[in-house]
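TASK: fixed-backbone design
INPUT:
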């Protein structure tokens, strides 16, 4: 009997494929890049056809010489909030993919907020009125392609590969159009954003019989899709039993801080983790992106920033990476990036340390907004940096358990699709005492980065 599962992790910059067996061992991996374009300040675009091509290329490489009968199912982990439009008849993209970082729909959100709709949006969707989420981006796209079918990246891939117009519940909960507690599209939110329900996909569970891949899938043809998850949700699922009482932090371009359960705090989001299971989440717009920005500024490879930070002190320097505003727990889309505490003695090493510390401070802010934690479960590319993990433990004041396995988003999709959930192994980082004035100084820097009305 076939027992391998192909996990397809479609991320912002690349698509990764993992062939996984029931023990959780990775049999084979592959990847394909996805271009990102920045046509104007604040605009972040991708091409839906290029995203699909990357999936097909990565899958073909991963399944090369693998007997067709050896693969039981496919599981998808996808980037979230990015908005996609396509022509139903031709199956071709009808506009650019607006990435989760894209800010062009800011005016749409601002107009709705000015009319007093923020509380309505938050109350139904569980999300703050913010251009990071899909609804305003979809409205912008429909203004230019009014007859298009719409969805998120998982919707586009499922349509292209299986012919079904559907969206997984967790991804649907990130659109800002779903009644998060009811699990269905909200008539009030559809009316508010001007989105016709006929353009939207059907909301489906995260696992089960989600379609069979057709001829457009190349080497994937005939394989059943057994699971679809948003990338952050998939990483949480991969942590297994540890996720029941831990706070998961995925360190990537941005960071996702997520825990199972419900919170009434407006500092964090309410979202669908998978199927009908709810979770709270705080999204950080710039974490790894901060390191990449500083590396580009200094003309060094990104990994050198981590090396510089490991042996330096920030010496009172703080980097507040509000390149496109601040997300959780502040939700201030008018905040501006700021470096404070500069002196004539400040050099590249101090800036590197401050940039890495900014990641830990932001995560600690979200954890505080969630009411604290007994431990953090770390994963994602930047979690490989021991310096960051120790900084995180120190600033949050709780142990950090770093998953030794990489690619947890892909593994979570494989585990759900395959119906297995093997335990993970971890590296532990215990917190060391810090001067409370450090956290107070960070919050002062954040206040200066924010608008006078919101940062005072």
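OUTPUT:
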């Amino acid at each position: 009997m076939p027992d391998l599962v192909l996990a397809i992790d479609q991320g912002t910059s690349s698509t990764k494929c993992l062939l996984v067996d029931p023990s959780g061992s990775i049999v084979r991996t592959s990847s394909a890049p996805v271009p990102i374009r920045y046509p104007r300040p604040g605009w972040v675009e991708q091409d839906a056809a290029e995203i699909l091509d990357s999936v097909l290329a990565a899958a073909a490489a991963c399944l090369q010489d693998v007997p067709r009968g050896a693969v039981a199912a496919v599981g998808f982990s996808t980037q979230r909030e990015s908005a996609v439009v396509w022509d139903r008849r031709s199956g071709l993209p009808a506009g650019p993919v607006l990435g989760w970082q894209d800010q062009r729909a800011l005016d749409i959100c601002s107009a709705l907020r000015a009319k007093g709709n923020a509380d309505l949006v938050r109350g139904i969707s569980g999300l703050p009125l913010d251009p990071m989420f899909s609804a305003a981006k979809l409205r912008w796209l429909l203004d230019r392609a009014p007859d298009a079918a719409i969805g998120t990246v998982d919707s586009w891939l499922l349509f292209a590969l299986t012919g079904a117009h559907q969206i997984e519940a967790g991804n649907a909960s990130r659109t800002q159009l779903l009644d998060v507690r009811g699990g269905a599209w909200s008539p009030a939110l559809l009316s508010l954003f001007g989105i016709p329900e006929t353009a939207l996909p059907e909301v489906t569970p995260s696992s089960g019989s989600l379609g069979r891949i057709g001829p457009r899938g190349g080497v994937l043809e005939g394989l059943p899709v057994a699971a679809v998850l948003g990338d952050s949700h998939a990483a949480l699922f991969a942590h297994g039993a540890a996720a029941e009482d831990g706070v998961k932090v995925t360190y990537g371009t941005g960071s996702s801080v997520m825990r199972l359960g419900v919170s009434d705090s407006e500092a964090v989001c309410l979202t669908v983790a998978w199927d009908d299971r709810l979770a709270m989440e705080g999204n950080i717009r710039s974490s790894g992106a901060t390191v990449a920005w500083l590396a580009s500024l200094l003309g060094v490879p990104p990994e050198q920033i981590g090396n510089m930070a490991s042996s330096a002190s920030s010496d009172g320097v703080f980097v507040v990476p509000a390149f496109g505003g601040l997300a959780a727990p502040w939700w201030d889309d008018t905040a501006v990036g700021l470096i404070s505490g500069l002196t004539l003695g400040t050099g590249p090493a101090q800036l590197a340390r401050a940039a890495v510390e900014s990641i830990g401070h932001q995560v600690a802010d979200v954890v505080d907004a969630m009411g604290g934690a007994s431990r953090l479960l770390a994963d994602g590319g930047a979690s490989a940096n021991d310096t960051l993990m120790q900084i995180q433990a120190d600033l949050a004041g709780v142990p950090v358990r770093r998953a030794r396995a990489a690619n947890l988003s892909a593994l979570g999709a494989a585990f759900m699709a395959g119906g297995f959930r093997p335990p993970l192994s971890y590296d532990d980082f215990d917190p060391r005492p810090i001067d409370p004035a450090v956290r107070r100084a960070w919050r002062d820097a954040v206040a200066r980065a924010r608008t006078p009305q919101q940062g005072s």
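COMMENT: The longest helix spans residues 348-369.
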